[in-house]
């Protein structure tokens, strides 16, 4: 494989076979000796002997980066690393090993550029993560990886007292992007979509249930406090982005992931597509919202909701909620269940199983994720048609 790299710097990354393995190992041995002489031993020279290397890394992929036919970097990519990462699901990770740049080429930004190449390769392989291990006292290495978006997820102390940091980089989700006429323009990482304001697709499903009095109730989720936008706000029963390559039919996975509902796409009532645009100082959000309705009468405690995304579920009277968003009432009463993060504070909170508490709250419109009034007009007109 030969892929131009480094934004026109003339460097080529290519996968090698055993015919070039001696060149690869010579580079690593030279680096290992330099590190050893400077009191920073990292790779054992014995482990860089050809037979031992093949025994340990024979199933991995070996790469050399050349510039003008001179090697300027080497590394290994492999699919498994059970010693350091025993509990990682197979298939989600590419592991980076034996990453080095010859001393004569250090300080030229080659290492950071090669990490960008590895990210592209991981994406092409369909991976979610890049993972690696480094000596935690090697500050230049820590700065390199943290500067490239890696985060330490574990610090392991070895029997000799050596601190090894386990680092990972999560590849950002990709979205298909569109023009204002919903013509596809390409595929872009999620952070860029919201930073640059590209149109993209979302799946919205509002869940309704009849009350004993014959009135309709609306299910709302409470967003996790760690969400990057609108943490702790009430939101649509179930919602999510469509990733690159997904169709609207794939959006039903959100019902399973967020609420534990197994619902065939054909069972949903489609309201259609609503283009929604929200612009603020920190966010430019332009969405083609595929909006659906669904009935489910199960008690709130029977929903298996995604605790990493949601901290509670609430039911509100549908007519009361409509009046709230229309501005004819200031608050709405909601009954729900929340994750029991602290002891109950008042009589309205009853701990029943140590995991969820039943709560009664009053919410104002400022507690609800914002939508344009025309969005709600579109939604309520379809709800009226659906419920009649």
Provide keyphrases for this structure.
20 strands; disordered N terminus; elongated; alpha+beta; 8 helices; Nucleoside Triphosphate Pyrophosphohydrolase; ten-stranded mixed beta sheet; Aminopeptidase; 388 residues
Protein architecture, described:
With 388 residues, the protein is α+β, with helices and mostly antiparallel strands. It has helices at residues 21-37, 50-57, 110-124, 139-147, 190-196, 253-259, 318-326, 373-387, and strands at 2-5, 11-16, 61-67, 70-78, 93-100, 129-135, 151-157, 163-170, 174-178, 184-189, 199-210, 216-223, 234-235, 238-241, 269-279, 284-295, 310-317, 331-339, 350-351, 356-364. The strands form three sheets. Strands 11, 12, 13, 14, 15, 16, 17, 18, 19 and 20 form a ten-stranded mixed sheet that branches. The termini are far apart. The model is unreliable at 1-7 and 342-354 (pLDDT under 50).
Whole-Å distance between the termini? 61 Å
Helix content: 10-25%
Q: Output mean pLDDT.
A: 91
Number of strands: 20
Count up the domains: 2
Order of helices and strands: EEHHEEEHEHEEEEHEEEEHEEEHEEEH
Could you say what the CATH architecture of the largest domain is? Alpha-Beta Complex
Topology (elements, then pairings):
Blueprint: E1 2-5, E2 11-16, H1 21-37, H2 50-57, E3 61-67, E4 70-78, E5 93-100, H3 110-124, E6 129-135, H4 139-147, E7 151-157, E8 163-170, E9 174-178, E10 184-189, H5 190-196, E11 199-210, E12 216-223, E13 234-235, E14 238-241, H6 253-259, E15 269-279, E16 284-295, E17 310-317, H7 318-326, E18 331-339, E19 350-351, E20 356-364, H8 373-387
Parallel strand pairs: 5-6, 11-16
Antiparallel strand pairs: 1-2, 2-3, 3-4, 4-5, 6-8, 7-8, 9-10, 11-12, 11-14, 12-13, 12-17, 15-16, 17-18, 18-20, 19-20
């Amino acid at each position: 494989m030969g892929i131009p790299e480094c934004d026109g710097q003339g460097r080529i990354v290519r996968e090698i076979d055993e015919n070039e393995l001696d060149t690869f190992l010579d580079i690593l041995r030279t680096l290992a000796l330099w590190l050893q002489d400077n009191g920073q031993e990292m790779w054992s020279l014995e482990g860089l002997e050809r037979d031992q290397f093949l025994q340990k890394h024979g199933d991995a992929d070996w790469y050399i980066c050349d510039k003008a036919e001179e090697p300027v970097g080497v590394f290994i990519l492999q699919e498994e690393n059970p010693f350091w990462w025993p509990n990682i699901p197979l298939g989600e990770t590419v592991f980076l090993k034996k990453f080095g740049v010859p001393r004569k080429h250090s300080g030229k930004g080659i290492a950071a550029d090669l990490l960008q190449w590895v990210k592209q390769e991981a994406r092409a392989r369909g991976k979610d993560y890049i993972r690696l291990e480094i000596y935690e006292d090697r500050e230049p290495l820590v700065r390199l990886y943290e500067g490239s978006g890696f985060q330490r997820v574990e610090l392991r102390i070895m029997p000799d007292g050596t601190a090894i940091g386990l680092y990972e980089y999560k590849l950002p989700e990709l979205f298909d992007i569109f023009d204002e006429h919903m013509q596809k323009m390409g595929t872009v990482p999620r952070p860029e979509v919201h930073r640059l304001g590209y149109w993209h697709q979302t799946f919205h499903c509002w869940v309704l249930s009849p009350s004993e009095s014959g009135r309709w109730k609306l299910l709302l989720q409470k967003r996790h406090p760690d969400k990057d936008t609108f943490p702790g706000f009430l939101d649509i029963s179930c919602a999510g982005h469509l990733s690159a390559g997904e169709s609207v039919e794939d959006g039903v996975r959100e019902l399973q992931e967020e609420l534990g509902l197994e619902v065939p796409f054909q069972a949903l009532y489609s309201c259609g597509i609503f283009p929604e645009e929200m612009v603020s100082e920190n966010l430019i959000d332009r969405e083609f919202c595929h909006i659906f309705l669904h009935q489910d009468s199960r008690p709130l405690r029977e929903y298996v909701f995604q605790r990493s995304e949601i901290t509670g579920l609430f039911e509100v009277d549908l007519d009361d909620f409509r009046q709230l968003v229309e501005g004819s009432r200031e608050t709405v009463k909601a009954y729900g269940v929340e994750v029991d993060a602290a002891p109950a504070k008042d009589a309205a909170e009853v701990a029943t199983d140590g995991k969820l508490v039943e709560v009664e709250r009053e919410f104002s419109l400022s507690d609800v994720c914002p939508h344009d009034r025309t969005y709600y007009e579109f939604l309520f007109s379809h709800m009226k048609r659906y419920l009649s």
